[in-house]
Write a structure and sequence with these properties.
Its cofactor is Mg(2+); Mn(2+). By secondary structure, this protein is an alpha+beta fold. Helices cover 41% and strands 17% of the residues.
Length: 510
Amino acid sequence: MLDTMLLKNGRKGGSERKSEESSGTATVSAQNLLLCHCNHHCPESSVNNTCMTDGYCFTMVEEEEGGVAVLTAGCLGLAGSEFQCRDTGKARSRRALECCTDQDYCNRDLHPTLPPLMTSDYVDSSIHYMALFISITVCTIILGLILVFFYFRYKRQESQPRYSIDLEQDETYIPPGESLKDLIEHSRSTGSGSGSGLPLLVQRTIAKQIQMVKQIGKGRYGEVWMGKWRGERVAVKVFFTTEEESWFRETEIYQTFLMRHDNILGFIAADIKGTGSWTQLYLITDYHENGSLYDYLRSNTLDVNSLLKLAYSSISGLCHLHTEIYGTQGKPAIAHRDLKSKNILVKKNGSCCIADLGLAVKFNSDTNEVDIPPNLRVGTKRYMPPEVLDETLNRTYFQSFIMADMYSFGLIVWEMVRRCISGGIVEEYQLPYHDLVPTDPSYEDMREVVCIKRQRPSFANRWTSDECLRQMGKLMSECWAHNPASRLTALRVKKTLAKMLESQDIKTSM
């Protein structure tokens, strides 16, 4: 019985001991938890800005955008808290963190302050500014030295004799009695070349002495003026600055050796005048008061003799252009590429000369190369042959350009024949294809008529009853044939017209 009581007491004592031990553990665990004040870092279970942790209470001050200091407080768990409380300060923003565990709400007494501004960035930026300042200073000094160098160079050149002499010297350079014809003949006889132009210094001298009188024309390249040099009338073609390539090309063609011909517009001089703000490109040629063939045909009718003279002189000029002259100083073959009645001038004696060579193409037979000008101008759409309109022209084959000129010449002959009186009848002047395309036709307009429908300007019924006009109709038809290889050459047309002129002279004398 005693043993039984001891066993019961023992069980009871053990049970009570276990209960006491469990209560003691709970008390110890509760004693290890710390209450902290929280602000901005409060967990969801917090009440009245109070959080509970087994680690540390903290207070932190951090600088946000705009330089505003924000104070936060809260609880840090025991795991990793030692590391977190040792804030390295290497974060992107300025901040300071302090921790405590001595009592509940101990972080209310913590007052961390922001660390002072780091000076490394400031030092770096000041170095950048210093480097920039030094670079700008050095560049300015170098630029100043360059400007001083060019200024003294310019002043030195100004003090030296100029290539172009002034007006007083010009007068002594060209004797007062010399006319343009005398100067050109003198340049031929002294061996500067038949038609290769006056010496450059003489050209510049003449250009500076010309007085502009009145404007007589305007085109896509610029303006044409009638001017005077020592009382002689000259034509002055003033190119737009955008047409420098055309000016250069035309000047180059006119000054080609052996270029001068009675039926090619007589070249006198070329010059560039200008200052820093403006430039004028001058091309000075013979002046012809009758104007272009286009103007002449609009206001004049023709008889058979005048018709043949206009046609023969025109083809003579074109034939000279197309013909290559061989020799030590020969002349290359040249194609016009913009042949039309507005680019042929009528002389006082009723003959024609070909003008406007800004699009001309030269053929170098030594290298077998076609020298095409680099300018962006193209010919006149109304006078373009089918191979140009449908873009099948072979630009590497020079004869393609020659045959294109012949097509255009056929249309010009048509314009002439319409104004020739026969049997008391004459048609009013019209441009080719006037009844088939608009006033300012597009490529598509011309391509449809010339290439697709293969139409050509119509013949008047009266032409068939006049022998001369009938032959001229046959001639123009063979010039504007659709197939370039079938077209007549300039030399063939020239011989045919020469025979017609001869027979007409015989008839007149009889």
